[in-house]
Amino acid sequence: MLKQFLSRLPRKALKGDSGGDSGSPRTTTPRSSSRTGPSGLSGTPRSNGGLSNVNNNSNNNHPGQAQQRPSGPKRMSSAVFPASVVAGIEPLVPFKDVPGSEKMNLFVSKVSLCCVTFDFTDLTKNSIEKDVKRLTLLELVEFVSSASMKFSEPAILATCRMCAINLFRVFPPNYRSGGGGGENEDDEPTFDPAWPHLQIVYELLLKFVTSSCLDAKVAKKYIDHAFILRLLELFDSDDPRERDCLKTILHRIYGKFMVHRPFIRKSINNIFYKFLFETERHNGIAELLEIFGSIISGFALPLKEEHRIFLWRVLIPLHKPKNLGSYFQQLSYCVTQFIEKEPKLASDVIKGLLKYWPITSSQKEVMYLGELEEILEAVNMVEFQKVMVPLFCRIASSINSSHFQVSERALFFWNNDHTVNLIAHNRQAILPIILPALEKNAHNHWNQAVLNLTLNVRKMFVEMDDQLFLSIHAQYMEEEARQSSEAKKRKEAWERLENAASLQPVTGNTAVLVTPQATKIAC
Description:
Structural class: mainly alpha
Strand content: under 5%
């Protein structure tokens, strides 16, 4: 009995040594030997990579649990954002230490090793293992950047699987007030504590997708519709750095995998529809519009019906949400790209803007006026004449705005040479609409800058056609006199009614007229 007991002690110590010092020569497990030499790389299971030794370390004090080690990788591969954190991982040999024929196998092993996930909210937890994984990821980025051989199908599968495990995750609820997704520009952006790690994974994915050694015909089986949908879900991240990386990667995928282009456009449209008609909250609208801006520039002429529908049902309605300011620059660029592609769309776009014109938001009105000016720079005479009457009725209303920025922005239209040329050729229709607004501003507006701009625009109309200006001005003065006379008559009629009502005797529940003199408050 005593001999049997003593004979077991060295074996327990040996197990503890092999788990505690993975790089020690005393390690005799088959997994360690397969990792320390190139000859064993081809036998390394790609499904669990560097996970088996890690679980061995976590279970080194419980020999009876050794049969349950393979269950760890299955849980991690099936989870959306694996919560299992391991106690240790072993670094593999560098690429320079293996022959060229074994480098792709070593690449698969290193990628599989990086499928281990960690909790980055606690900086002190698993710091050694995190550093090993970081160095491995950096080594993979360098290898992919300088790769000279075609990536094998197992390598493509392993890379897509590793990126999915590390990147695809569920975001916590947004507890910001209002949940406007960029509505409040004073909100500080939220930064992911795991970003230093995620950034390397994103860089690896970008280098991998753009690599000339990646065969798109083979990779499309793994960078498929499901992968793209999960990638699009990440655009709702609160971290602007992550959204910027996603924007670049998705654009490269769109460029390389032509077979996925219709699906990518459709999926992005679905995000826009959900934002417009359901939530009005999404963090990545600006980045998705920026991707579409480059896509639109590559549309062939004549435009397909699909692209026209995108303009009518997505881009124009996107002017309506209250958090327009968070993505307005990208939206305006997409709209102007459409008009540059097909100028006859300009009149329909302007009608759409007039339909969604903001009435109570001066900030949005300033943005609308700025976009209108950009559109008018690309519009031709025929399209301009289709919308000039409703357009300048709205501009005249903006000129009379008591908000000086709105009025000032509307008057800036006359600083654009192309717009002034359009107005000059159609002054007979435009001047009767604009002149009343200019005269009201000249006599009543409180802001000196607006007053000066009004007088300058008035002077430009005089120089265009002084006879027309004098004629329209005379008509305006006659109309003002007529309205003043009618207003005076209405006031006198009401005074007569008030006097007649005040002379009637009060009986029963008859309403009593309170004269203006009785309710006047001395100031």
